[in-house]
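Internal ticket - ligand job 698, nicotinamide-adenine-dinucleotide:
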Amino acid sequence: MSGVVKYERRGAVGVLSINNPPVNALGALVRKGLVDALDAGLNDKEAQALVLICEGRTFIAGADITEFDKPMEGPDYNTVLNGMEASEKPVVAAIHGTALGGGLETALSCHYRIAVPTARLGLPEVNLGIIPGAGGTQRLPRLVGVEAALEIVAGGVPVPADKAADIGLVDQIVEGDLLEGALAYANALIAEGKGPRRCCDMEDKIKNVAPELFDGARAMMAKMRRGFNSPQRAIDAVEAATQLSFADGLKKEGEIFMELVVSVQSAAQRHTFFAERAANKVPDVPKDTPILDIKQGAVIGAGTMGGGIAMNFANAGIPVFLIETSQEFLDKGMATITKNYASGVKKGRMTQEKMDKIMGLITPTLSYDDIADVDIVIEAVFEEMDIKKVVFGKLDAVCKPECILATNTSTLDVNAIAEITSRPEQVIGLHFFSPANIMKLLEIVRGAKTSKEVIATSFMLAKAMRKVAVLVGVCDGFVGNRMVFQYGRQAEFLLEEGALPQQVDKAIGEFGMAMGPFAMNDLAGLDIGWSIRKRQAADRDPNERYASISDKICELDRYGQKTGAGYYKYEAGSRMPVPDPEIDALVIAASEEKGMARRDILDEEIIERCIYAMVNEGAKILEEGIAQRSSDIDVIYIYGYGFPVYRGGPMHYADAVGLDKVYAKACEFHEEHGAIWEPAPLLKKLAEEGKGFGDYKG
Ligand code: NAD
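stdout (structure tokens):
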């Protein structure tokens, strides 16, 4: 018997226990061990019932996803689970922690399930672009009914133990020791003469199911998970359970699984999964780097970003001071925070009591003296170097020496800010995205002198704030905005050449971005970019192509959603962009003014121009070492800019297309549009070597 699964008897009950740290993944050794332990249990004449339980922090938390890309070793899943289900002795799964994916499928192949109150159960395979492949889509609807099964299989969201008990997925919730509870449950089965109760034999919940149920689920998933293939295929698999025998349904599930596991979408979704985990690894900042204790913080500036950042502190349970220049601005900032939380209470996301408690952690003040003892300050004042320097000078004078001084700047030089303080090693960029209380991404900007402790602490703070943090280096726009600048620039050039905003946004939306570039600009506010461009005008290379459509729109006082008009019109109180003939005329006039003959532009060109421009800049960023790895850039785009997860971020997407093809297009655009399309040397090199960005190790 393999060492990871043990068999022992407790009275009349045989106990199969898995010990495969850290999460008891259902790898080859565990599968083999389960077969052997089940055999031992079946051959043990004294055992009248069996219990399957796991040691450590969780029940089987899932399949071993590193096996997906390799030939499978050991017994396959269905052999193991069908064998478990066929057991002549009743088998009870005893669940703690998370029973996910292959873990829940194993529990479903047992005849009874009991769980501790904190357990969570689910089939999250769709999040990796696949469906359950070990009977989950066939057993679950038989046990809990089609509607609940669709929610779990196609939705991919785990359910807590109490809900699992409500729908019949769990037979009993066990308070106290799980093994003792499981033994008691198994002994009761023996006493009552209850034998195996197999999901594969259950029929009543899958008979006469209305087809509309599946149509409704398909329509809902098409909306909720736009562009994702796996939720649709998960619905097909559950539907198969209502149409086919169990054996044929399993076969169908297997076919869908095999089709998806080699799909481009699944590769992208798995890439995203690993990319997110890789992002918080910084080779020269090891795991044991000392972390500074963040007991209280401060935010300077209670505007759009400062208010949201203060909410992040409070949500994480960290008391925070919020500083402004006047009582009026302070009151305004606090009113916005109150409004945000109150809307959460109104929508039932939070109780009034919780809101009051969280708001109690935010202390508005006009005095820097109040923040002498805080452990971290995040500055979010106007994007003006002179103002930032004054603020950092004050902070350096007031704050205790070990306090971290962070800036939320989007474009300014973090090193220049650090240098005006006496503690550049304590200075770092913490670049939140708007709205800061909602957006998951945090770019952690490492300055030339930032200490390892400050970096490690920033990652820890990001985790406490439930953000996805990525380390980046200092440059104009860091990673996200530097790349999005190229993307937006191409989008505007396309307008000059013949497209209209709604056409560009539609093509980019169909590609899968959460929003097209123009709707996104309207949301962010056109005036921000306008003021940056005005500031940079004197330094602009007169020979470089410059599109002035956005400037012209701003000159009409159309700043986007906040003024009810930008590239689009917005009805009062609505965020829905409505195409505006006035803007169409402005765009056409802009082409005429430059003497450019407008032409028909295909969606394919829109996507290539916008996305490859971003990829080309990403290649430069990677080569300059501004990003540590290409997958970090992907994480930034997925969490900060709504890049479709099923395409895995811009760099993974380029790898999937093939860098030879991307490079060839960049060369073509270079010929046609000149210097701004100069292919990045790294793109050229990798394309010529037949490699991808994922192969680049710096
Ligand atoms: P904002 O204009 O909404 O807010 C800035 C606030 O800072 C104002 O309330 C102002 O009164 C206050 N302020 C100015 N000088 C101050 C001082 N000396 N002391 C205390 N408070 C002061 O601006 P914002 O959009 O919140 O941007 C703030 C910073 O965040 C900028 O550096 C910006 O580049 C960056 N940022 C903005 C966004 C965004 O989408 N808005 C996203 C990421 C980063």
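Auto-summary: The mean pLDDT is 96. Residues 375 and 403 are 5 Å apart (CA to CA).
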